[in-house]
Amino acid sequence: MKIKLATLTATMLMAFGASSAFASCASKNCVDKIEKLYITQNTVLVDTEGTETALDPSYCVPHSGVYIRLLNSHGNFDAIYSLLLAAQFNDKTVSIRVSPDTASLDPASGKPRCKINYVTHSS
Fold it and tell me: In the chain, where are the structural domains located?
């Protein structure tokens, strides 16, 4: 187990050897560094260094005007969460694609909150 964890850690560190200089949120995507991961019982709330409110409000709105939600029911939750942690730890940029969470409406606007559809990283 220790060898597998060490190998995984080394692989993740090498994968994050470079990052993109471009960073922002717009339309249905945030390309930025991870500023904060806030873990709740059913969700990981993700705050990037970008402005999540710049996402297309007709599509979805950030949770509390700040966070993109990673639901623990996502089929690739473990892989996405690992990628977000590695990116935050290594101060690297990721691309987060959002989709509307129609099961969770923002109380102020009545619009669906943004949830993570997928995350990518390119070195």
Answer: 2-120
Beta-sheet strands, E only, within 4-122: 24-26, 29-39, 43-48, 68-71, 93-105, 112-120
Mark residue 83 as left, alpha or beta (left: phi above 0; alpha: psi -120 to 50; beta: remaining). Answer: alpha
Name the pLDDT band for 23 (thresholds 50, 70, 90): low
pLDDT value for 22 = 52
Radius of gyration of the chain (CA): 15
Query: Can you name the CATH fold of 2-120?
Result: OB fold (Dihydrolipoamide Acetyltransferase, E2P) (2.40.50)
CA neighbor of 27 nearest in space, from 1, 50, 55, 51: 55
